Amino acid sequence: MGAGASTAAIVEPTVSGKIIDATTKAPISGALVYGYYATAAGSLGGGHVTAEQLRSFAVTTNETGLFIVPGWQQAKAPPGVRRDRFPVIAVFKPGYRTDLRGLQTIAQWYPTNARADAFSRNAGAHERIDWTDAPHELALASSELERYQSLRAASMGVSMLGDCGWESYAPVLRALHEELLGIIRRTVPETDRDADGYLRSGRPHPMPFVDFLTRSAVDRLLQQYRQDPAAWKCASPVQVFVGRRP
After folding, report:
1. Cα–chain-centroid distance for residue 99?
2. Where are the beta strands (DSSP E) in the chain?
3. What is the number of domains present in the chain?
4. Is the pLDDT score of 134 beyond 70?
5. The domain containing residue 233 runs over which residues?
């Protein structure tokens, strides 16, 4: 990588798209498109590399399935510093299979059934990429186990590094919380669930390779807040989450 490239600003375009049901082709309202931009920095000659999360994002599709992920620009790297980018982007809707990707730039994201003409049009785009005429299809999960696997994949699109990092993901965390408790309700007998809706310790797991004992991020945040509300510096998770839970 040359000296000029080392000091170039990182620019990520605005991405527009549409999410539809893979079977019915109907728009999916309320699908979550989210992730984070991060960089790894080091010297041009090699050496130590550190990772830094620079921005989190989370948007929701409207009634016609449309979404827009706003563009982002990172300042130029100091002379002599190499900075490599790696955004992560997830598309999640309860009941569907999660689409999760790690990319070198968000400009590499494309719908599952993107057309050749759309690829050609977007290839040279720098500030805005529009995939709305080539909708991204989400397939329904075929079982509760697949729903759980999709839930686990969806959680990998969330990185709550930094002070109050969870706030950007509040709608995502709420959806993940409700999906987890919904799966537990449908697969675990009521007698095997505790007062918070989770699997009671010592009771049999209903599916292989599942973890129904660990609390959701929503419940962990509520627990931390209630331990010392006076020391809490972020938005109140009680105000954000309570009253919206199943």
Report:
1. 10
2. 10-12, 14-21, 32-43, 46-60, 66-69, 72-74, 81-85, 88-92, 99-102, 128-130, 136-138
3. 2
4. yes
5. 160-246
